[in-house]
Amino acid sequence: FCFRLFPLREHGMNWRAKPLTSQEIQAFKRSKEVMERFVRAYELMLGFYGIILVSKETGELKRAENWADRFENLNRFSHNNLRITRILKCLGEMGYEHYQVHLVKFFLTETLVKGTLPNVKRSALDYFLFTVRSKRRRRELVHYAWQHFKPQEDFVWGPKEKLQKYR
Q: Which stretches make up the Opioid growth factor receptor (OGFr) conserved domain (predicted)?
């Protein structure tokens, strides 16, 4: 299901899912209808995870009313982390980098600050963070993660000297 809604230019876990070509991605981006469907699919998956897209323009997110039940599902079943990684990569492919940033920050906040998704923490740090295409925004997110990671001296996702000097 997820591989059909969020295709990539790489092979995933499903051997039947055919990788996208650069030409197909460009054709998708030129179609207003395809891009609107893509955003609807993103909203659908967010809803499944207990998240609401507050603003299509900015990508801002918040918890849905059913977040506690949905987060329990996210914590229990790690295959969701693969799907989220796929969604994040696809957002980047389709030109929605600002959506990537908000989704990664959402998961960093829920795992590191609020502690609601402890079983998603490693995926958020090991995979979600590094799907963000913008080097500047990725650095900001790594710094945000470092600021909230406990114990801070065990943070391995960026050089401590640079994280301490980051502005």
A: 5-164
Domain residue spans in the chain?
1-165
Q: Which has the closest alpha carbon to 86: 8, 26, 15, 1? A: 8
Q: Are 8 and 93 a contacting pair, CB within 8 Å? A: yes
Per-residue pLDDT at 59 exceeds 60? yes
Amino acid identity for residue 82 in this structure: L
What's the pTM? 0.92
Backbone φ, ψ for residue 51 (5° rounding): -125, 145
Q: Could you report the per-residue pLDDT of 86-113, keeping only the tens digit for each?
A: 999 999 999 999 999 999 999 999 999 9
Q: What are 148's two structure tokens?
A: 């909230």
Greatest CA separation for the chain: 48
Contact status, residue 91 vs residue 43, Cβ threshold 8 Å: no
| Dist CA 137 CA 141 (whole Å) | 6
Answer for the pair 123, 85: CB distance below 8 angstroms, yes or no. yes
